[in-house]
Amino acid sequence: MRMLEGKSAIITGSTSGIGLGVAEALAAAGADVMLNGFGDAQAIERERARVSAENTVKAIYHGADMSKPADIQAMAEVAKTAFGKIDIIVNNAGIQHVSPLEEFPPEKWDAILAINLSSAFHLSRLVFTDMKARGWGRIINVASAHGLVASPFKSAYVAAKHGVVGLTKTIALEGAEYGVTCNAICPGYVLTPLVEKQIPDTAKARGISEEAVVRDVLLAAQATKQFVTTSQLGALAVFLSSDAAAQITGIALPMDGGWTAH
Ligand code: NAD
């Protein structure tokens, strides 16, 4: 029997990048999965069907906008109806914007706080009662190395990710006696569309070339000089979802090639 057979999971922001890698890893471990996120409808349907068929699990999709609490509620209700229960949530949806503080658009600040931080509160709140009642639950928040340390020009992102780490600790304490763990994963740089998109903006903000951004900014602090991969993060999410991780709660665990060791 696979480790997560009989479990079900919602992974927000899983039409791309880390979320998709985590969804694939949870499905490979036997969990039914709900995918969420934006993108081309046909491409999303192909991914959903592939994840389901390759892993012989139920895979469904909901297009909730994670900046909208009513959408998040609708998504949680659809998942509960489809799966009967929700055992694991992975709060992963996120966006980025890179610019100096004085030029940082206030509407980008609001969007980043809503999607990267508040959505984790909204979804966790909705599944917590049932998880506690069943005596088992896993809440995994995809924070960032930027939940532990800062970089310039990322005020909203760094604030939101530090907020996610704080939220993680509080949920962990509230769930601790009910078999519900809550942990934050803090990835270093992973070469996903979110990172690819910020390379030109970072080049502009710092007045350097895009090659220099990869070498001297993105991988400068990452001691291994390698990007973290989505499958490595997926394996970590599977471990945190396992019974072996029952006593791990309230942590912010870096997977960052040594970045935060500096
Ligand atoms: P990505 O752009 O590849 O994927 C982001 C996902 O979120 C997509 O599925 C997208 O459709 C979804 N999304 C965006 N806005 C949404 C909204 N309003 N509602 C619902 N879904 C929405 O990015 P990624 O790099 O895979 O990032 C995933 C998470 O990992 C983010 O929280 C990000 O901050 C975090 N992270 C990424 C890195 C990295 O280097 N890539 C490092 C640390 C942390």
How would you portray this structure in words?
- The chain is of the alpha/beta class.
- It has two domains: 8-188 and 229-254, 3-Layer(aba) Sandwich (Rossmann fold), CATH 3.40.50.720; 191-227, no CATH class.
- The chain is built from eight helices and seven strands; from the N terminus they run E-H-E-H-E-H-E-H-E-H-E-H-H-H-E.
- The chain has helices spanning 17-28, 41-55, 69-83, 106-134, 155-175, 193-206, 210-218, 230-241, and strands spanning 8-11, 32-36, 59-62, 88-91, 137-142, 180-187, 252-255.
- A seven-stranded parallel β-sheet has the order 3-2-1-4-5-6-7, with helices on both faces.
- Strand 2 (32-36), helix 2 and strand 3 (59-62) form a beta-alpha-beta unit.
- Helix 1 (17-28) runs parallel beside helix 2 (41-55) and helix 6 packs across helix 7.
- Residues 13-19, 36-39, 65-67, 92-95, 115-116, 142, 144, 187, 189-190, 192-195 line the site of nicotinamide-adenine-dinucleotide.
Give a quick set of tags describing it.
Rossmann fold; binds nicotinamide-adenine-dinucleotide; alpha/beta; 7-stranded parallel sheet; 13% strand; 7 strands; 8 helices; 2 domains
Q: Which ligands occur here?
A: nicotinamide-adenine-dinucleotide
Helix content: 40-55%
Shape: globular
| CATH fold group of the largest domain | Rossmann fold
What is the quaternary state of this protein?
single chain
CATH architecture of the largest domain: 3-Layer(aba) Sandwich
Tally of helical runs: 8
Whole-number mean pLDDT:
97
Distance between the termini: 41 Å
Report the order of strands and helices: EHEHEHEHEHEHHHE
Q: How many individual domains?
A: 2
Beta-strand percent range: 5-15%
Low-confidence stretches: none
* CATH superfamily descriptor of the largest domain: NAD(P)-binding Rossmann-like Domain
